[in-house]
Structure formats: C-alpha cells, structure tokens
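Researcher: Good morning. I'm working through a list of sequences from a screen, and I'd like to move beyond sequence-only analysis. For each chain I'm collecting a predicted structure so we can compare shapes side by side. This is the next one on the list. No need for commentary yet; just the structure.
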Amino acid sequence: MALTHGHEDHIGGLPYILPDLPGQFPIYATPLTAELSNAKLRDYGEAPRVQKVNFDGGEIKIGPFTLNFIRVTHSVLDSSNIFIKTPVGNFYHGSDYKIDLTPFDGKRTDFKKIAQLSKDGVLCMLSDCLGAERKGHTPSEAKLTAAFEEELENCKGKFVVTTYSSNVARVNQVLQAAEKVWPQGLFCRPFGHQS
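Model: Good morning. Structure tokens for this chain:
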C-alpha cells in the first residue's frame, strides 16, 4: 500500500480498514505523511506501521509492482504522486496536487522526474485535482504572505486565520508575517493597539 499525502480524507480510514485486512503488508509514504498516518493509527490503538520513503530514495518494490514517489505541491507538505510500473504497463497515480511554481516552502513539483519516468509510457493516468475543470490557475501560496502582512498592518483588533491543521506552510506564513509586522513579539501587542 502507498499513501500520497496526509490529508484526512486520504489517511483517515486507515484505523478502520487495516484491522480487517489479512496479514501484515508494507505501507509506504513520504516522511510527513507517514508520521501523520502513524499518529492516526496510534490514536485508535493500532500499531504504527507506515514506513517512510524519501523522494530520492529510489524505487520501492511491492510484488510485481515498482513504485516511484514524485514530489508535488499541495496544501499539505510532503505530498507525492506515484508512478507505478506493472507487468501490463505504467500507471501514473496523480492524487491531489496543486501546481505552484513558487511554493512557500520552496519545494517545487518535480517535473523533471515526471518527464523522465513517463518516457517509458503511461498506460493509465489516475488524477484528482480540485478545480481542474476551470480555466486559469490558482495564484501561488507564496503571495499570501504579503496579504497577511498587509492585513496585520491594518488590523485594529484580533487577527483570526483559519486553515486546515495539516497546512503547516500556511501556519508558518502567518507566524512569519506576524513577526515582521509585530517585531516586539507575536503575543506582546497590547489590546486595542493601533498601528
């Protein structure tokens, strides 16, 4: 089994499904996805069993299948697509992604690896990308930093940000913007203070 990223709708079923599956078998994921998945398993009294795979760690063999994890940008760090070589042909599993050429963490989609692996042909591409049917593109996540800074500068009261708990990059953007705008300390701004 291979996991592409740590969003709840992709790993949340593990503690319910794994106990019903026969035998022990390997489960692979990139480091953050593995940590989130193993934490989920521990929360439900299951033993952690998701093994970490690095993007540059080479190929993973599972029976007659060979898996290559490819870094992609998404709203949760350490996301991957998986290129699967099978006896009948190659499959590209492009689970959730967002093409962001200037991601906040600087870790871009590995287009070179996608092109290199695809040279052997792709029998089937399985893909899921929210909003892919709409024209245009979504702006880079990096642009949010300036927006956060501007809003913090103009904030006359509390500044509330909502996000998914797995969007670690977004939390870091808010904290960095707050440190820049309020250099005296994130939690030291006096109540009612106006810039």
